């Protein structure tokens, strides 16, 4: 039986490449995103690669979209083997022009959108005593990053949310995986200053590492190690005096996020 996989945020970046690579393996793929044209292109690419595809246009922050999408998945395939909760946003922000609105917007997708999907898929996985939920968090969630405080906070929240669930579900047959990439080429990182993205990976390479970590049964998948190992294991314990001095050199993104879904439908 082909693996039944949900990929949220499949219209660009890591999600689109996940669809391509899993498509080559002949998986059944449920792909979500808000931009119709880009989602259709990703779906066509996955179909050409060999996948059976459900194209699910909608917004992960909208409960009714998530419930409608999961109902379609259940009707078509009777459930999921993997749910890769990848949809995410992040924007440049300066602490000097801080807005609660930006924090709320970031959490809506990165935390609450993922939570909507966990609520939708978990009961059937628990009943089946099998399934994998892989949440795409970030190494940015291990310390607060200047110029990206809301993003860091949202990823910290996602990482600990997944961890709490993972520990409680130990032995249930359902695996919870937290994926923490470093820098990988995508629409999101294309807005960054390349000089501030050490060990930047090609999208294909980043996604291969993601899939390899998920398959190996790791609960925390992080890469590339020269960047991620210090961020995950060293930085959280680094005294503020040192952390602040080193990281105050990092600046915010060069280009702001533009929500193309508002113009594209
Ligand atoms: N690239 C990196 O270096 C890196 C590093 C660490 C973590 N990550 C994480 O990896 C994930 C993928 O990001 P990316 O780098 O591939 O960026 P990207 O190219 O901007 O992709 C983000 C995807 O999320 C979707 N999305 C955003 N808001 C959504 C919403 N409300 N509902 C449904 N889909 C939504 C976007 O599609 P639509 O706009 O069509 O909805 C798009 O397909 C994110 O969670 C990001 O935080 C990336």
Descriptive overview:
Helix content is 47%, strand content 14%. With 265 residues, it is α/β, with parallel strands linked by helices. The protein has a single domain (4-257), classed as NAD(P)-binding Rossmann-like Domain (Rossmann fold). A seven-stranded parallel sheet has the order 3-2-1-4-5-6-7, sandwiched between helices. Helix 1 (13-24) crosses helix 6 (203-215) and helix 3 (63-77) runs parallel beside helix 4. The longest helix is centred in the middle third of the chain and has 29 residues, at 100-128. The chain is globular. The two termini are 34 Å apart. Bound molecules: NADP nicotinamide-adenine-dinucleotide phosphate (NAP). NADP nicotinamide-adenine-dinucleotide phosphate binds next to helix 1, strand 2 and helix 4.
Number of helical elements: 9
Helix content estimate: 40-55%
Low-confidence stretches: none
Number of β-strand runs = 7
Concise summary:
By secondary structure, the chain is an alpha/beta fold. Helices cover 47% and strands 14% of the residues.
Supply database-style keywords.
single chain, 265 residues, Rossmann fold, 9 helices, binds NADP nicotinamide-adenine-dinucleotide phosphate
